[in-house]
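Notes from hallway chat w/ T.B., transcribed later so I don't forget. T.B. wanted the structure written out for a chain they're using in a teaching module, and asked if we could keep both sequence and C-alpha cells in one place. Agreed to drop them here.
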Amino acid sequence: MATTSDLAPERKPAAARASRASAKVREAQLEDQVSQLQSDLKAIAATLARLSNDKVNEVKAVAKSEASHLQRQAEHVVEDVQEKASDIEQQLKATIREKPLTAVASAIGIGFVLALLSRH
C-alpha cells in the first residue's frame, strides 16, 4: 500500500510547475505595468515641457508688449518735458525783452548768491 508521502512527491512537481507558471504570468504582467508607467511618465514629461514652453513664450510676449508700451510712454513724457522747457525758455526770453534791466539785475543777484555758496 502506498503512503501519502509516496504520492506527495508526484504532486509537488505539478504544483511547483503551476506555481512557477503563475509567477511568470505575474512577472510578465508586472513588466507590462512598469512599461506602461514609463510610457505614461514620458508622455507627462512631454506635456509639461510643452506647457512650460508655451508659458515662457506667453510671458516673453507680454514682457515685449509691456516694454514697448513703457517706451512709448517714456517718449511721450520726454516730449512733454521738452515742450514745457521750450515754453519756459520762450517766456524767459519774452521777459528779458520786456524788462532787460530787471533780467540783468536778477542774473547778477543769482551769480552773487552762487559765489557766496561756493566759498563755503
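Follow-up for T.B.: The mean pLDDT is 88. Might be a good example for the class.
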